[in-house]
Design a protein that fits this description.
By secondary structure, the protein is an alpha+beta fold. Helices cover 40% and strands 14% of the residues. The chain contains 8 helices and 5 strands.
Length: 215
Amino acid sequence: MKDIDVINQYTGEKWYYSNIVKEHFFNPRNLLWERPENENEYDAHGMVGSPACGDMMEMWLKVDKATERVKDLKWKTFGCASAIAATSMFSVMVTENGGLPIDGALKVRPQDVMLRLGGLPNRKIHCSVLADKAFQKTANDYFRRCGKFDKIIVEGARVVDARLNITDKDIEEAVLEGAQNLEDVQKKLKVGIGSPEIITEVEQLIRFYKDKYYG
């Protein structure tokens, strides 16, 4: 009996990876093997996942300030072949032909990436979401740095700092990235600066996530 998970949903062919997927896996575009020597060259940075528990994706973004088009997008990952190929293709799609506007890049769906790749096995589709989530996190960092808080995308999370549009999920991810206390979290997010009434709640969330992940 054939495993339907290895059937390409676009072509019906019965194999694991298309030649395009293999090309982007063996020769990934815009990949960084190490962190940038000077991260200040970039206008934004974002990371999703954790190497301690599974796939991780980290991105660095350069933006043309005059047009808000994606000028450059670099990434590194702790992930599988599907995650590498999907992110490689995503980075091409948002930077080709002069780069997409950030708002347009945020509309690139995992399905769009898979179509350009020629499909992924069904059991690997979740890997293509890593690039989408990492770019959204990176774009949010750009909007936050530019003071465009109304553009920050909030999904499935509770807003803790309404002025800066920071959620409990942002605080959770800051703790996962190594923040240990309020000062560390504020260096990453500036949460509660100018809103002292939420500091107690932020500190409670930090303790909760530290206990949850580090005991």
